[in-house]
Amino acid sequence: MDLFADRVEAGELLAERLLDAHDPVILALPRGGVEVAVPIACRLDAVLDVLVTRKIGYPPAPELGVGAIAEGGEPVFDMGLLHRLGLTPESVAEVVAQERRELARRVRVYRGDRPLPALDGREVIVVDDGLATGGTARAALRAVATARPAKVTLAVPVGARETVRSLQKEADEVVVLKTPVDFRAVGQWYVHFDQLTDADVLHLLGKD
Question: Would the keyword Glycosyltransferase be found if you checked this record's keyword annotation (predicted)?
Answer without folding.
Answer: yes
